[in-house]
Amino acid sequence: MAQDPVKVAPKNYKVLLENDRVRVLEIRYKPGEKAHMHSHPGTVVYYLNNFKAKFTFPDGKTADIVAKVGVAEWLEAFTHAAENIDTTDIHLIAIELKELAKRIKK
C-alpha cells in the first residue's frame, strides 16, 4: 500500500476526526495542485462542490473524475496520484473505514 495521503499531501488533507473505526478527512486542492501516489481504504466520499480531477494509478493508467456537489458515493480501496484539472477548487469529505483496511491487510 502506498503512503497515507495526510503524510503525502498535508496541505490538501486535514483530519477532522479519527478513532479506531473511522478517519474523516477534509480534502481540498486548488486548481493545478497535485498529490503524489497514496492509498485509501474503502471510503465514503461526499462532494462539497463540482469539480474535475485526474487520477493516475500505479499501473500508469489514468481516469478523469467528474464530481457533482451533494453526491455521496462508495469507493473501494485504491491507490492513486491526484491532480485538480479544473478551474475551481476541489472540496470533499472522505470517511475512511478502518475495519475494512484491517481486513484487507490480513
Helix content: 10-25%
* Ends apart, CA distance between termini: 13 Å
Strand order of the largest sheet: 1-2-9-4-7
Residue stretches low in confidence (pLDDT < 50, at least 5 long) are: none
**SS-based class:** mainly beta
What percentage of amino acids are in beta strands? Answer: over 45%
In N-to-C order, the SSE pattern is: HEEEEEEEEEH
Q: So how many helices?
A: 2
> On the 0-100 scale, what is the average pLDDT?
93
Strand runs, count:
9
Based on Cα principal axes, name the global outline. Answer: globular
The main pleated sheet reads as: 5 strands, antiparallel
Our Rg estimate from Cα atoms comes to: 13 Å
Give a topology summary.
Blueprint lengths: L4 H4 L4 E6 L3 E8 L4 E7 L2 E5 L3 E6 L5 E6 L4 E4 L2 E7 L5 E8 H8 L1
Antiparallel strand pairs: 1-2, 2-9, 3-8, 4-7, 4-9, 5-6, 5-8
Structural description of this entry:
- This protein has 106 residues and is mainly β.
- The protein contains two helices and nine strands, in the order H-E-E-E-E-E-E-E-E-E-H.
- The strands form two sheets. Strands 1-2-9-4-7 form a five-stranded antiparallel β-sheet. The chain has a four-stranded antiparallel β-sheet with strand order 3-8-5-6, with no helix packed on it.
- Strand 1 and strand 2 form a beta hairpin.
- The longest helix is centred in the last third of the chain and has 8 residues.
- It is globular and about 35 Å long.
